Amino acid sequence: MAGSAHATREAARRARTRRESARARGTGPARHARLAPPLAAVAAAFTLAQLLLVRPGMGLGWDETVYVSQVSGHAPAAFFSAPRARGVSLLVAPVAAWSSSTVLLRIHLALLSGVALYLALRAWRGLFPDRVLALAGALFASLWVTLFYGPQAMPNYWVAVGALAAVACFLRARADHRDRAALWGLAASGALMAWMRPMDAVWAALPLLALGLPRRHWRPLLALLAGLAAGALEWVIEAYAGYGGLARRLADGSAIQGGLGLRVAVVDQLRSLGGRALCRPCTGALPHPLVTAWWFALPLAAGLGLAIAVRARRAAPTLLPLACGATAAFPYLFMIGYAAPRFLLPAYALLAIPVAEALLHPLTMRPGARRTVAATLVALGLAVHLAVQLAVLTAVVSRTTAAHRDWSRTAATLHRLGVRPPCLLTGQEAIPVAFYAGCSSAATSGHNANTTAGTIARTARHTPVATLVPTGSRPPGYARTWPSVPLTGQRLYYAVPRAGP
Q: Does this model's pTM top 0.70?
């Protein structure tokens, strides 16, 4: 009995020692429960930077009008093409369902994106020191593409923070099968990714699945798969309800992206770094080397971070985000024939942690000339990088705001001519302009085709209808007898039926 009691006390002492050691290393449960001021500061600065640098009144972009129109009372729902998922629409619904204010919507999204960044970084506590996580968050948040898309009704940022949190939760759940918070976080992260973009979620999760299956990490695997399935369920059901089945929806989505296959889009992504929201077709000169230098330095710094981790015998927490970042980027670098900088946001978020570890490595050197020189070079490089990102962001915001104002002016012209809700708009840029005007949009060809010329002609007999045609082009047959007015780069043809007696 005495021996049994002694063994019990000894086991309790060892358990207490392990818990105290874990807390000292920053890996214990109490460590995860506390607020992380450095990470909160990064998230708060990210939110504030969005509100100050990306004008809340900038107006909605093309894709944003599609997502917002699904839940907004401002305009009828736009055609929802096969690759899109409903996650963004549900994300904006708390504001868009009752208000048409873009300012409120931007503030809503900026606040949510800051909270999401904090939670994703916080999931990594205990796997890396707070200083590494804070720098990683700052590196990711300071990219012009992150700042620009954080407050926008677009899915890519949310896939990025979902992937970042998912990898951390997987590592924690693998190390401690009793960590229920990690399992729930893994399921929620998988659901968030799939909720936003199901196929991107699969690509980002591939290394987690590949690691979990042979090692038989069943609980993390089940949590991840459950989350992915829950997030993608609506998309799959909708495929059968409105797109002719899952295979047909996947095929249609591939066709809209130009057909998936072996296509090297690396140079296209480089061209988009200068501030091109969509590079399709992606032609023209490459941006200035200062604009693209960080892109070449990114994999080198990430590789250095991995080498540092291997030497320290803690490769897994560094290797896994690198692998997930690589698979998340692969389809957008090697499988499509165009580029958009937002496509690589998940990769940038995942690579930020090993890059931050590499950049902070000089601080671990012995005091001396080498440490001073290395730290100075890193600081100068970061200063130049931030200046370049700010310059590109300023230009992108200015250019985008001007384009959105053009759409708003076209909508005002439509209203002045009598094309007011309920109304229908077709032709060039019909989807965003229709949202601004409060009209429905329609197309007879292309990826957004949802009607016929005959239907449009019949609609014009009783409903205001307009079509936007590029300057110098002929209008469609149903609009050739309609009156028209010139716009910037376009001509507007319209038909307003006379009111009955």
A: yes
What is the C-alpha separation between 132 and 128, in angstroms, rounded? 6
- Torsion angle (degrees, nearest 10) of CA 465, 468, 471, 475: -50
Q: How far is CA 44 from the centre of its chain?
A: 19
Confidence of residue 33 (pLDDT cuts 50, 70, 90): low
Q: Is 151 exposed, middle or buried (0-12, 13-18, 19+ CB in 10 A)?
A: buried
User: What is the DSSP code string of 442-485?
Assistant: E-SSSTT----HHHHHHHTTTS-EEEEEETTSPPPGGGTTS-EE
- At residue 129, φ and ψ (nearest 5 deg) are -65, 155
User: Alpha-carbon torsion 91, 92, 95, 96, what sign?
Assistant: negative
437 vs 36, 60, 101, 123, CA distance in Å? 45, 12, 14, 43
Of 399, 171, 414, 159, give the one whose Cα is nearest residue 274.
399
Token couple for 388 = 């370049």
Q: Where are the beta strands (DSSP E) in 382-461?
A: 424-427, 440-442
Question: What digits encode the pLDDT tens for the residues 413-433?
Answer: 999 999 999 999 999 999 999
Contacts of 244 (CB under 8 A, 6+ apart): none
